[in-house]
Design goal:
Thioredoxin-like_sf, 50% helix, Glutathione_S-Trfase_N, four-stranded mixed sheet, Glutathione S-transferase family protein, 233 residues, Glutathione-S-Trfase_C-like, alpha+beta, 9 helices
Length: 233
């Protein structure tokens, strides 16, 4: 285990950093935050890219260097400190890992493509709309798969995986701001809905709500953020 330190979380409001913030706070780990000013595109600055060459958020500074990729950070924290996922010798460790990687490698990238279709289709709005419709169907299928799987999970909750899924569910309901989001209904995913309700009772969630301006029901009935500082996009 690395020497105990105050971690440094580079964040922007309502970005994937909120998942890591929840995990750190829930685990009682000391950390400080440093705002990445997205309005000024600070994530593309030389200083930030020295920590995260991909220019994405979050980045977590640790004794082992800067970590990036949300799933990797969650896994590292779980293995380093315990309590955020099954231990390596837990009988359900493999089950937890496969759904963590499913969320990181399948669900989250699909959301990113839907939020920024121009990065994948170019500037033609018709192509962007077609891609978004395709992704809405794909994401719906992914969430049904997760909802069915989560009903049979046998590891202590909440874990970093719960926080990751809750963040993705929030974004389905809030972004993109200029599109019709009636395709998404959290109540259609009973187990995931219950997961979000439980997370909203945690002290770490109350802290997150204040820190990033996410409102009283950030996962079950989310609204656009009103952060005290910084910008979500």
């Amino acid at each position: 285990m690395p020497a105990r330190m105050t971690y440094v979380l580079h964040y922007a409001p309502d970005n994937a950093s909120l998942i890591v913030r929840l995990a750190l706070d829930h685990a009682g780990l000391p950390f400080e935050t440093r705002l990445v000013d997205r309005a000024a595109r600070a994530q593309t600055s030389d200083g930030y890219r020295a920590l995260n060459p991909n220019g994405l958020i979050p980045t977590l500074e640790t004794p082992q260097g800067a970590l990036f990729e949300t799933g990797a950070i969650l896994l590292w924290l779980a293995d380093t400190h315990g309590g955020l996922g099954p231990a390596p010798d837990h009988p359900h460790r493999g089950n937890w890992l496969k759904w963590l990687f499913f969320t990181a490698n399948t669900l989250h990238p699909a959301l990113r493509m839907m939020f920024y279709p121009e990065k994948y289709t170019g500037e033609d709005r018709r192509d962007q709309a077609r891609l978004r419709r395709l992704l809405q169907g794909q994401i719906t299928t992914n969430l049904r798969t997760l909802d069915a799987a989560a009903a049979d999970w046998h590891f202590p909750a909440p874990t970093g995986l719960d926080f990751y899924i809750a963040g993705c569910l929030r974004w389905c309901a809030v972004y993109p701001a200029d599109t019709d989001r009636r395709w998404f209904d959290l109540s259609a995913y009973r187990t995931l809905h219950q997961m979000c309700l439980r997370i909203e009772t945690l002290p770490a969630c109350a802290t997150l709500q204040c820190a990033e301006g996410l409102g009283d029901t950030p996962f079950t009935a989310p609204r656009a953020p009103t952060p005290p500082q910084g910008s979500a996009t």
